[in-house]
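Reopening this one. Same input as before:
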Amino acid sequence: DWVSRKQEAKAANKAAGFAPAEDWVPDTVSYPAPSYPVAAVKGMTSGACLVMFDLGTDGKPENVLAHCSDPVFEDSAAELPGARFEPARDVAGQPVEVKGVVYPLSFCIEG
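Same output, byte for byte:
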C-alpha cells in the first residue's frame, strides 16, 4: 500500500540519517523510457503516474511501485527501463540508499 510504504520509507531514511524533503527527487542521469501500453495506444489514452522506488547507492531504482491516473500504465511505469539517478550522499559525500523516492512520469499521446 502506497501510504504505509511512504511512512515506512520516511522512518527508515530518518533512522539512516538521511531525511530528504517530501518533494525531493534525485538528479536524473538517464531518463526512463517506458513502453506505451498497447491498450492505451488503441484507446488514445494519456496518463500521469507517481512512481515510488528505493534509490540504491549505485543510482538504480529498486522495489518500484507505480500509482497512475489510469491502471493501464502501472506495469509499464513500474519498470522504469533505463532510469539512472545521481545517488544521494551523506554529509561525508558517501552514497546512501534512499527509501520511498517519488518520481513523476507522464504518458502522452497525440492524435
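So the earlier flakiness isn't reproducible anymore. For the record, The radius of gyration is 15 Å.
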